[in-house]
Structures are given as structure tokens and as C-alpha cells.
């Protein structure tokens, strides 16, 4: 008699339904090596019975036995950061393509001195751990991860200490590519709206300062504006920037949210974009292609970074002898030219 819908299906149930031994069921479902090959017909019969009975392996029990749990633990710096919503979605899809599920945990506001990783992931029975975001503000977490028996891979690590294999976007080159685009159109008076990013992340701002110094001799007074990384922050910063005696003809924003806020401010001020002002963003979030005008920006290679990171984590999990030495793989950010940039108006 098949188990009731509310009962937990076991390998014993599958063995009875498929007419084989429980040890054979275990070898088939765990894809374990055998001295005597299991016939394809038998293997198919076991898999079909498991599917029909609704068998779900217990990852914790598998982990205790030392077998793969087919789980990847993802530690997110902060769920409230809208950028990571798309990252998490890509992570789940990519992990499933490798036969893994994702266990999510976040560290924002949770880690005090001595707080172990188990409070973040609830369990350490995962095959690998992926860090999402700069974690240098959480030294206790990093201390715990150094002693982890499972491999750790970091994505978007910013300026975190290089302690694990990491995958980062080339933010500096991305900003420079955007500024090169503006310069190629003939802009010389280029302002920068620097969003306040976590952990005082200033690489994009520094790239702007270096570019302006090398290309035009420096940043004009008042052209660098720091602001909250929000729509309101971009709107307020652009309003201040355009009140200067000699305002810029182009503005680069360190995030798309700030860039969209700048577009809104320009509209409110009666400044045509890209007629009197060109605007460029950074990240290529969904709304960037739907603004009026559509926002020129740098596309964050989320799918590529996540795909590479998951593949690296899975490879390390499946080959314990593989090297886990810290290294960094960097991905470029393609420039997406839309309608918000054009040559400056002639006086």
C-alpha cells in the first residue's frame, strides 16, 4: 500500500514499489558507484517510483552522512538593497541549472561579536557558500568562514579583504568607458553624482576624479556631488549642480537610481535632455530603458558574474582537492548607449 499523502516517503517505500532492495534504491538516488553495474531498466524503475511517490531527499540527513546536500548557502549583505533582488533571482536560476537549491541568509543588523555563521544560514549543511556583497563590515562572519569545511566564493566583494575566490565587476573601467563616451561627444564640463554606497565604496567616484584630472586637468569646483543613493538623492544633487554659475553640459551618476532622479530634476527645471544636458547612469536596472529619454548607462553583467561564481562554487564543492586560494575574476561592464546622451549644444 502506498504511503498516505501526509507521510514522509522513504527509500524503503521506493524499494517496495519498484521491487528492488533498499540498498539499490540508495545507490540509484545518490548516484553512488557500484561494483556491479545497475541495469538501466532497474535504474529507471527506481527513479520512476521515487517520482510517483513524491520522494524528497532530506538534505540535512544527507549532510550528516557526508553526502552532497545539493544546497548552496548564499549570504546576502542586505535584503533591502534592491540591486540584490535581481542577483538572488539569477543565483537561484543558475544554481538549479547545476542541480542545486539555495539557502538564503542575510547579515544586515544580525551579526554581533562572536555570532557564528549558523545564525545566518541556520545550518552549515551546504555544499558551498556564496557571499553577495562587500562583507568587510562583518569580521566575525569572515572569521567563521575561514574555518569553513565547505568552499566559499564571493561576488561583488568590493574592497573586502581578498580571502576567498571572488568575482567582481570592473567598476573603474566602466566609469571610464562612460566618461570616454561623453568626452567623445564633445563634453568637457562633466559633473558626477556620487551615490553613498555601503562601506564607503568610492571606486566609481575615484575613477571619475582620475579621468577628469588626466583628461581635463582636474574636477571643476562643485562638479562632484555626493548624495543618497536614491531617486530623491539624484534629484537634489542635480538641482544643486545646475545652480552653479557655469553648470556642466553632462552628468555621470554612480547608480541608475541617482541617474533617473537627475532626469526628473532636469525635467522639473525645464532643462532638455540631451539638448542642454546629457545624463549617464550605472547598472542598467530595468527602469533605465523606460525613462524619457531612455538612460544611457553601463550594464552590470549580473548573469555572467553569477554564472561564473556558481560554476566555481560547484566545481570546488565537487572536487575537495581543488585549490581554494584567493583570486579575483573581473568582468567588464558594457556601455549601453540610449537617448540621454548627445553632443553639447553650441553656445
Question: In words, what does this structure look like?
Answer:
With 347 residues, the protein is α/β, with parallel strands linked by helices. It has helices at residues 11-18, 22-29, 40-53, 59-64, 83-97, 118-121, 139-146, 171-184, 203-216, 231-241, 256-268, 302-318; strands spanning 71-76, 101-106, 128-132, 152-155, 166-169, 190-196, 224-228, 250-253, 278-280, 297-298, 328-331, 335-336. The strands form three sheets. The chain has a six-stranded parallel β-sheet. Strands 7-6-8-9 form a four-stranded parallel β-sheet, with helices on both faces. Strands 10-12 form a two-stranded antiparallel ribbon. Strand 8 (250-253), helix 11 (256-268) and strand 9 (278-280) form a beta-alpha-beta unit. Helix 1 packs across helix 2 (22-29). The longest helix has 17 residues, at 302-318.
